[in-house]
Structures are given as structure tokens and as C-alpha cells.
TrEMBL record:
InterPro entries: Carotenoid_Oase. GO terms for biological process: carotene catabolic process; retinal metabolic process. Signal peptide: none annotated. The keyword Oxidoreductase applies. Fe cation binds at H5, H70, H141. It comes from the Eukaryota. This is Putative beta,beta-carotene 9.
Length: 323
């Protein structure tokens, strides 16, 4: 299994996270590197998959329930894998695979388990010995991560639990209940993991870190906004670097598309933009500073077009995002 959100370096190198279920260590989380295409002196062309390699491996702590993941974080010097307590039950997975049942039914939420942040050096694939934990939460998407003054800042769109996975069924989307509406609410949150021994809170952030009696660093989060946000995007030139603005949407009930929003990570202010009931927005151009609409594309379809989970945009001239 692999994430839906790989990371791409400016030179075109792609990194992704995947789970392996075979091997002497049992299930492991792996960072896989896909270098850009290159031509050898003899003229042979190697594509990214020809050159793929595993650059880091982390054993799963729950051997029979490796965690579900959708994204991971990367800074200039580190990979950050977030091991959350929504596990894919191996016995159920095998049973349901052969009986034709849905994979989602094989997932177990473990409410009494903490979230683990695995911090890995990019230079040598070494997992830092310091253990980082946080009170339980669930997430699909990473907003961004970066380093500052020897500390790693990790921004995620967090749910209080894993209920959303078993709520995004067609019957709940078409006939939403309050349980459904609550389950899809994600809050942009910031965590801080010290790469060294410094536990001092960074200026301008309210999140903090404490070390318990076992030496485990407990990461206490800060909400980047009091409002909800999911499907986050940033200016990708700031991926892995200090940034200020994140963009996404505020989920609304049922089939409505939601409201586009912008969150200022420094001031915790939020700007709201387009809200179009009964429309599924496919392309709208907004001024990034004012959030005023500049252009809107509309078109008719032969039938109903449902909302998608997320998309990925790249220009023809972009090498960075041409996956």
C-alpha cells in the first residue's frame, strides 16, 4: 500500500510511503525513492521505477494492525511518518479479500492508543531515537512541515477519531445525519517535535513539547484556526519549508461542495471564499491575497457529477508535479 500524496523535490525526485506486509520484521512502513529519468552513457534510459529504492524502514508497532495512512510529511532534512491508531486488521483483511467485502470494514479504531511521530533523517534513513507521541487523533492530509531553531513543526488536518472512515458511505453522503456531519469535521493543527534536546516553544507558536519519565516527548497541539479545514494545499515552493498560508475547504452537509478557505498560520485568521450550493466546483480562479473570484468555468454534464476526494493540478511545463 502507498499514500495518495507523494512528495517531490525540485529536481524531480519523488518520495512516497508504503507498507510492506512481508519480511522478517513483520509489517513495516517504508520510504521509497523514485529518482528522475536518466540516460546512461550507453544510451539506455532508466525510468523512475527502474531506479526505485527503499531509503528508510520503520517497523509497525501493531504487528497485526499496521496503521492506515493517506499522507506523510517531509522537511529539508527529515521524513515524518505519523502512526495513528486506525489499524488495518491483517486477519480481517485476508478474510474480506477472499470474501469480496470492503477493505474499510477491516479497519479497527484503537481509542486508547497514542499517535506516534516517527522522525527519520533523510541523509541516511536513520530513525531518531527520541520517541514522539500525541493524544489520539486521526488525519488524512498533511498541510506542511518544516524546521526552525532545531525543532520540527508539523501541520495536519486532524479529526478527533477515526469515525470519518466509516461515515463516508453513499447512504450517509446522500442522507447526512448529525453523526455524519460531525465525523467529517477536521481542524488544522500544529505539532512541534524537537530534533534535539530543546523543548522551548518557538516564538509565535502555542504548541509545546514535554518529556515524560520514560524520556518520551509528548507533543501538545495548537489549533491553527478555530474553523474547520480539509483538502489542504500550499504554494508547493514552500513544501518542507517555513510557510504562512494554507488553502482548503470547509466541509458542509451532504452533497454541497463546501466553502473554500485560506488559513494564516501566523495569525490564526481564516478567509472564506466561494460557496456554491448545488454545484460541484471543478475550476474557479481566486486572487490568493483577497480571495476574490477572477474566473469560473461552468459546464453541463449528461448526468450527476459527484464530489471527488481530491485532485492534482500540473502545467505541461511543470517537471516537479508530473507524476
Amino acid at each position: 500500500m502507498a499514500t495518495a500524496h507523494p512528495h517531490v523535490d525540485p529536481d524531480g525526485t519523488v518520495y512516497n510511503m508504503g507498507t510492506s506486509f512481508t519480511g522478517n520484521k513483520g509489517p513495516t512502513y517504508n520510504i521509497i525513492k523514485f529518482p528522475p529519468k536518466k540516460t546512461l552513457p550507453d544510451g539506455k534510459v532508466l525510468n523512475s521505477f527502474d531506479q526505485a529504492s527503499i531509503v528508510a524502514t520503520v517497523p509497525c508497532q501493531w504487528k497485526m494492525r499496521p496503521c492506515y495512512f493517506h499522507a506523510f510529511s517531509m522537511t529539508d532534512n527529515y521524513f515524518i511518518l505519523v502512526e495513528q491508531p486506525l489499524g488495518v486488521s491483517v486477519p480481517k483483511f485476508l478474510l474480506y479479500h477472499f470474501s469480496g467485502r470492503a477493505l474499510a470494514k477491516a479497519m479497527d479504531w484503537m481509542p486508547n492508543e497514542k499517535v506516534k511521530f516517527h522522525v527519520i533523517r533523510r541523509s541516511d534513513g536513520h530513525l531518531l531515537e527520541t520517541k514522539f507521541e500525541a493524544d489520539t487523533f486521526f488525519f488524512f492530509h498533511s498541510i506542511n512541515a518544516y524546521e526552525e531553531d532545531g525543532q520540527i513543526v508539523i501541520d495536519l488536518c486532524c479529526f478527533d477519531d477515526g469515525a470519518v472512515v466509516n461515515q463516508i458511505w453513499l447512504e450517509n453522503i446522500t442522507n447526512p445525519t448529525e453523526t455524519f456531519n460531525k465525523a467529517i469535521q477536521a481542524t488544522p493543527r500544529r505539532f512541534k517535535a524537537p530534533a534535539g534536546t530543546n523543548l522551548v516553544t518557538l516564538p509565535g507558536t502555542k504548541c509545546r513539547s514535554t518529556r515524560d519519565a520514560k524520556g518520551v516527548v509528548q507533543c501538545h497541539s495548537q489549533d491553527l484556526s478555530q474553523d474547520l479545514m480539509e483538502m489542504p494545499r500550499i504554494n508547493y515552493r514552500f513544501n518542507g519549508k517555513k510557510y504562512r498560508y494554507g488553502y482548503g475547504f470547509i466541509p458542509t452537509k451532504g452533497l454541497n461542495c463546501g466553502t473554500l478557505c485560506k488559513v494564516d498560520a501566523e495569525t490564526e485568521r481564516r478567509s472564506s471564499g466561494q460557496k456554491m450550493p448545488n454545484f460541484q466546483v471543478r475550476m474557479v480562479v481566486l486572487d490568493a491575497k483577497t480571495f476574490q473570484q477572477k474566473a469560473l468555468v461552468t459546464f453541463k454534464t449528461p448526468g450527476i457529477v459527484t464530489k471527488d476526494f481530491h485532485g492534482f493540478f500540473a502545467r505541461d511545463c511543470d517537471e516537479v508535479h508530473r507524476l
